[in-house]
Amino acid sequence: MSKQYRYLKKDEVIQAGDETDSSADGYNDSPVWVTVHPGNVGGLAPDPQYSSHRQYRRPTPTTGGNKMSNDDLPNWQQPADTRPKLDLSIPALLAEIKRLKSLFLSEQKQRLDQFDLVKTYDAINCKLEIDELKEINAELLIALERIVEHQTAVAGNLAEFSGVVHIANNAIAKAKTKRRL
Predict the structure, then answer these.
(1) Given a cut of 70, is residue 78 above it in pLDDT?
(2) Residue boundaries of the structural domains of the chain
(3) DSSP state of 69
(4) Distance (Å, rounded) from C-alpha 135 to C-alpha 129?
């Protein structure tokens, strides 16, 4: 009884014992399966639907495990007689165009909604920063008023002190002139 395998799906973790196709041209050549390099173990498998991506497979348990079916293969690797048939009729193509257009528009709307959320977030942050700056400005104004009050008091004391000094100087001058006489 031969081993059964299944293909790894996109972002599935690569494990020891998995195999990879090492053929030079995976599209035209038959696969040559080799055990994965130890450096790839623990990595994520690439999307197998792209022929340029490396293909990985894993042995399935022999006790009733899943058998590999053509559904596990990407379209380009499926046998020609089992590939889904393309409906190239005008109504089918128009329906597909309409589906893709609505998908594109919904993605664009999602991006715009995300952009609006970012703009709203930035506006809220800007408003908060402005409010914080206003609070800091108010605190600075209060501190400045206190400094002005203190300087006014100091200036008043200085003026008072200057007046006292002036009176003292006058008294000394009068005393000197009296001694001379």
Answers:
(1) no
(2) 1-85
(3) -
(4) 10
